[in-house]
Write a structure and sequence with these properties.
It is an enzyme of class 3 (hydrolase). This protein has one domain: Uracil-DNA Glycosylase, subunit E. The protein is about 35% helix and about 20% strand. It has six helices and seven strands, in the order E-E-H-H-H-E-E-E-H-E-H-E-H. It has helices at about 30-35, 45-55, 65-70, 105, 120-135, 155-165; strands at about 5-10, 20-25, 75-80, 80-85, 95-100, 115-120, 140. It has a four-stranded parallel beta sheet, sandwiched between helices. Helix 2 packs across helix 6 (about 155-165). It is globular.
Length: about 170
């Protein structure tokens, strides 16, 4: 297990009693953990894609309250599938010894009617660990990670919009 560390998630989910869509990543990257919030790598296109789909300005990288407001104003919750795991750096492919989050923490207080996974790893982990508890099937969307170089930002926004827009109020 050279290079592996057991890492806890480190920060709270974003949700409130009006959240109708739950977006799940796999596990925070090294930069996200350092910034203490989701999608902290400025090369990750998540915040630009979400702002575009939601028809809002892109929040500044360091403006965590604006990022929370962006999601909550549109009924979107955000979390990751993994509460803690053994991982090498930011590599989703290296995730082992998963301790999943307690998804009921959100679904028991929010009227979540759709789960969207940001990438294949989040989708596989959700299907294995969380779908049996939530009873909600997830739709897997293309990853906004810079590692998914085959998908440009425009194409990502179109794919995310096609799925997310009909779920919004």
């Amino acid at each position: 297990m050279t290079g592996y560390q057991h890492i806890p998630h480190g920060f709270e989910p974003v949700f409130d009693e009006r959240s109708r869509v739950l977006v799940l990543g796999s596990f925070p990257s090294v930069l996200s953990r350092a910034n203490d919030f989701y999608y902290g790598n400025p090369r990750n296109r998540f915040w630009r894609v979400m702002a575009r789909v939601l028809g809002e300005p892109v929040p500044a990288d360091e403006d965590i309250p604006a990022k929370r407001r962006l999601l909550l104003a549109h009924g979107v919750a955000l979390w990751d599938v993994v509460q803690s795991c053994d991982v090498r750096g930011s590599s989703d492919a290296s995730i082992k010894n998963v301790v999943p989050v307690d998804v009921a923490r959100i679904t028991s207080v929010s009227p979540v009617r759709a789960v969207l996974c940001n990438g294949g790893t989040a989708g596989r982990l959700y299907h294995r660990w969380l779908e049996p508890q939530s009873g909600l099937a997830a739709q897997v969307l293309p990853s906004t990670s810079p590692a998914n170089a085959a998908w440009g930002e425009e194409r990502l926004a179109a794919a995310w919009s096609e799925v997310l827009s009909p779920l919004l109020p």
